[in-house]
Write a structure and sequence with these properties.
single chain, 171 residues, mainly beta, 7-stranded mixed sheet, 1 helix, Curlin_rpt, signal, Minor curlin subunit
């Protein structure tokens, strides 16, 4: 079939292609093993996103860093930075409009963030060695900030409900 002789059909074909390309869903995506658990210098970053308009940014430098970030819902954002050696971050967001920011530097630090609900915000900054931080927020419009520096500190913040604020600083 020649395209010159079928001008009317080209418009129908173009409309069908455009419509077909906009009907794709996350279920249509196929996981490629070659991209699963991308490893560089014994560091691993695993990102899982289900929903719409979720954003994740990960920057890891140093040896043996571990990061698992999961988002389910819409408009969730995560910014994760790690430097040093043997640090670990696990962040999970379910709902919409949740924001997680984690910055770790040093050695053997661990952070866990779990947010379930709407418009929750968690910000964790750790520097030093052998520090642990956990933030769990379940509800709407909760805010948590953790700043920790030094050696062997532990912070745990858990909020159930709405419009709560928590801040913890250890040096």
């Amino acid at each position: 079939m020649s395209l010159k002789n079928n001008k009317g059909r080209n418009g129908v074909l173009l409309a069908a292609l455009l419509l077909g390309s906009t009907l794709c869903h996350a279920a249509d995506l196929v996981r490629e093993d070659r991209y699963a658990d991308i490893t560089v210098g014994n560091s691993v970053a695993t990102i899982s996103q289900i929903g719409s308009y979720n954003k994740a940014r990960v920057d890891q430098s140093g040896a043996s860093q571990r990061m698992v970030q999961s988002q389910v819902g819409s408009r969730n954002q995560a910014v994760i930075n790690q430097s040093g050696a043997n640090n670990s971050i696990t962040a999970q967001q379910n709902g919409s409009g949740n924001t997680t920011q984690v910055t770790q530097s040093g050695n053997q630090n661990q952070t866990g963030v779990a947010q379930h609900g709407t418009d929750n915000s968690a910000n964790v900054v750790q520097a030093g060695a052998y520090n642990q931080a956990f933030v769990g927020q379940y509800g709407q419009s909760n805010q948590a900030t953790v700043n920790q520096a030094g050696f062997g500190g532990t912070v745990s913040v858990t909020q159930y409900g709405d419009n709560m604020k928590a801040s913890a600083t250890q040096r």
